[in-house]
Amino acid sequence: MVLRRTVTVLAGLFVLFVLIAPSDLEKFSFEAFLRVPLEGLIGVMALVLLPDRLRRPVAVAGGVALGLFTVVKIMDIGFDMVLYRPFDLVLDWPLLAPAVDFVDVTFGRLASVLAVGLAVALVAGVVWLAALSVLRLSSAASARRPVAVRAVALVAVACVSLAVPGVPVYSDAAATSLVDHARRVQAGLHDQEVFAAEASVDAYRGHPGLLSSLQGKDVVFTFVESYGRSALDMPGVAAKLADGNARLQAAGYAAKSAYLTSPTAGGGSWMAQATLLSGLWIDNQQRYRNLVASDRLTLPRAFREASWRSVGVVPGITQAWPEGDFFHYDEIYAAQDLGYKGPRFGYATTPDQFTLESFQRNVRSKQHGPVMAAIPLVSSHAPWSPTPDSVRWEELGDGSIYSTMPASNDPPESIFGRDPAAVRADYAHSVSYSLESVISYLETYGDENLVFVFLGDHQPAQMVTGEAASRDVPITVVARDPAVLQRVEGWGWDDGIRPGTSAPVSRMSDFRDQFLSAFSPPRP
Fold it and tell me: CB of 253 within 8 A of CB of 480?
């Protein structure tokens, strides 16, 4: 009898937790669970009033549904922690494949197989536990129908009579979550049509004289991983930007800066990069796949068609990358092509300074016509520790110098087991390192014919930014030739490499056309 009652209580607590628990880990608090779930009251009443022959199968079906809802809520919490949004039941399934690939590359095939097996077992276990819990509660309630009916009625009356504005007594979180997901499913099912309509407009395809105002210039687009607007007020980053601005001015450079709103946050760098280069809003994997299967005019392709040598330097690519063909690069330098022989620092396969040195050595130092390059820098990717030290450029060699520095290959999710204050400090330090790499490269290898654009791809995880952070990232154009910055004067961007709080903000997808318009003849 005691065991049966204990099982009933545990089943009730499990169902109560699932129905009330927020989908945002930041909102977990003792007060959040001091509420009565209306869905639970309705469920108990429905099961109690059903005939015995229907009660058991309905309870099992309801338990399975509750289990699947629990799995989705877990996915919501995970996505909110990393990407600032709930899980999308239509559009986010393709993201699971890159997650498995990451485990495969980082820890090996056995680890990826075990991870998939564990995930399947977890889902099955949660669904089984939920079905068992609802079935147990159904049996207990039906055995005492009069008591159960009176208890539900009493609790419902108490919820109404004790309700005070601003002090929630009951919860409809589960129903609200289901409605929200239903709306996202509807939007997701139509997203392919919406994206096709957006992609059908390609204003600069076949435009004569494209990029003619940049003839003779090397143009570099550098994405600094996780360099978001939130970083600008962190002491180390703010100091680095102030110091870097003074150093670049002393070296004869001028700069303009503003903000772009990224289509993603916390992760999904490839979607942000594709957005900037294609001029289309890529905020889910379905859009990304449709994009790379299309014939869209990207910035690398535009430069290539205008007689630039188009190069992709992508240290984060460790496997085959068929999407590279879509961007129309003449050459692609993946991680294994950079000549790095040093250790790995967290996620980063190659320190940012070495990546830029490899670009200089393999591309710009050789006799060449004008070059356009897209370079994602990955040292400021989570877990943000350890970060390599900056060294003199002539000492980089094959990267063996980094063997004297503490290194690791900790996965990005390791940040969730560390002190948030330490994570934020590590984040700021890694971004400062990445910015120092850019600034020092410009000082060392810049000339009158270099135009350098550097920007963040997305904001870091919420444990760094806090709740309600924007998706804005800084973007900066740097050049020595005054004619280059005169071309962008009409954008209204702030002077220097740090945009002010009131600097212009535009969508990242608008940049392609804005850039092409500034450096090309007017469209007919």
Answer: yes
Domains of the chain by range and CATH? 2-191 (no CATH), 218-518 (3.40.720.10)
| DSSP helix/strand/coil, 417 | helix
CB 427 within 8 A of CB 460: yes
Whole-angstrom distance, CA of residue 366 vs CA of residue 133: 69
List, in sequence order, every residue forming a beta bridge with 311; answer none if it has no partner.
331, 373
Distance of alpha carbon 41 from alpha carbon 29, whole angstroms: 22
Ordered per-residue pLDDT tens for the chain, 524 residues: 677 778 788 877 888 888 888 877 767 777 777 777 777 777 777 777 778 788 888 888 888 888 888 888 888 887 777 777 888 877 777 777 766 666 665 566 676 678 778 888 888 988 898 888 888 878 877 777 777 677 767 776 666 666 555 556 777 788 888 888 888 888 878 888 999 999 999 989 888 889 999 999 999 999 999 999 999 999 899 999 999 999 999 999 999 999 999 999 988 899 999 999 999 999 999 999 999 999 999 999 999 999 999 999 999 988 888 888 999 999 999 999 999 999 999 888 899 999 999 999 999 998 778 999 999 999 999 889 889 999 999 999 999 999 989 877 776 667 777 888 999 999 999 999 999 999 999 999 999 999 999 999 999 988 899 888 999 999 999 999 999 999 999 999 999 999 999 999 999 999 999 999 999 998 76
- Tell me how far apart the alpha carbons of residues 428 and 444 are, in angstroms, rounded to a whole number: 24
467 alpha carbon, distance to own chain's centre: 15
DSSP state for residue 308 in the 8-state scheme: P
Residues 6+ apart with CB under 8 A from 136: 7, 8, 11
Q: How many residues does the chain have?
A: 524
How many Cβ atoms sit within 10 Å of the Cβ of residue 200?
A: 7
Token duo for residue 211: 């990029």
Residue with tokens 């949004």: 85
Q: CA–CA separation, 38 vs 146, rounded Å?
A: 20
**22 — phi, psi (to 5°)?**
-65, 160
Q: Which two tokens stand for residue 188?
A: 């997701």
CA distance linking residue 359 with residue 370, whole number of Å? 14
Q: How far apart are CA 131 and CA 144, in angstroms?
A: 20
CA dihedral angle for residue 303, residue 304, residue 308, residue 312, rounded to 10 degrees: 90
CB atoms within 10 A of CB 344: 16
The alpha carbon torsion through 185, 189, 191, 196 (nearest 10 deg) reads 180
Region of residue 492 (left: phi > 0; alpha: psi -120 to 50; beta: else):
left
* Upper half-sphere CA count for residue 484 (Cβ side, 13 Å): 22
Which pair of structure tokens corresponds to residue 347? 């996620």
Rounded Cα distance between 315 and 39, Å, is 50
Please tell me the pTM assigned to this model. 0.83
CB atoms within 10 A of CB 137: 23
